[in-house]
Write a structure and sequence with these properties.
It is a single chain. This protein is an alpha/beta fold. It has 9 helices and 12 strands. It has helices at about 5-20, 35-50, 65-75, 100-115, 130-150, 170-180, 195-205, 225-230, 240-260; strands spanning about 55, 75-80, 95, 120-125, 155-165, 190, 215-220, 235-240, 270, 275, 300, 310. It has a 6-stranded mixed β-sheet with strand order 5-4-6-7-8-10. Strands 1-2-3-9 form a 4-stranded parallel β-sheet, with helices on both faces. A two-stranded antiparallel ribbon has the order 11-12. β7, α8 and β8 form a beta-alpha-beta unit. α1 (about 5-20) packs parallel to α9 (about 240-260), α2 runs parallel beside α3 and α6 (about 170-180) packs across α7. Mean pLDDT is about 85; it is low at about 295-325.
Amino acid sequence: MKTLSAPYFAAQEVAARLRAEEIGCDVISIDAGNDLNKQIADIEDMVARGIDALIINPRDSQGMVPAVNAASAQGVDVVVIDSTLDPTADFIALVQSSNLQNGMLVGQWIADETQGQDLKIALLSGDQGNEVGQERRLGALAGLIEGQLRNQGHVSFEVVAQGWGGWGNEGGLTAMEDILVAHPDVNMVLGENDSMVLGARRALEEAGKVDEVLLVAAADGQKEALEMIRDGQYGATGLNDPALVASTAVDIAKQAIDGDLPADISKLTYTTPTVITQENVADFYREDAVFQDCRTLKPKGTCTAGPLLPLWLSECCTWLPNWKT
């Protein structure tokens, strides 16, 4: 993993580890700290230690290609998750939610819920140049355009500002504080993940505006966001289930190790796109969900499969699995 700067990544690491242990694999987890050069060095180290398979959330879609190709050339089965990697790279499959389709569904929901309103949108984005964030915001805005054209025959929204929140709660808070100074009339926040939107909500609370602004995320499904959706305090989010993405990648890696990969396996595997609203949130909310604000989580000990995987549920770990059967 490139980083765990948002709760999604912590949940992904846990889900992958649990699934790997369930099917008899050992796991080594390494923190790249959102540093491209470190992630490259981590891969090189893992290959030197004799891993059988590598699951990676790449820091950069182009910058990681040589390291991934080198690992594959050494016989390592590589599966990519969540973030896009150049499809010309040598890997088995990329597993992710359909950011574009999730965004489209969210945008269409916004159009239906706000029909007749003129929207002034604060857009919260993750990292500049990140393809996943771009797909999410473009999907949501395209869905909003299509929905408004269908419902009222014209478009009635303006993106008044784009803030960069680095995918995290604190980043969302800071970005929203800055936006509110220049655009106090914002009436909707659209974020590329739940964590940044939840941070923005804190800024709105401090400004006394939280009841005036619709909160929406193009993707995620973080526990706190689902609770607020249930309680009518948050509009909607796209389903980006970290457990499903991670466990699917683990299963593909194990199939590759065992020589059981289907002949027709696709290089791109999408989970089912869904918009989560107050009407269906009960279908997705889990009281025991790991995908929540990592600041509330505590260290859980050490992996029984070996000393190399500290089981910390925090915002400060990343992982590269070492599959040993």
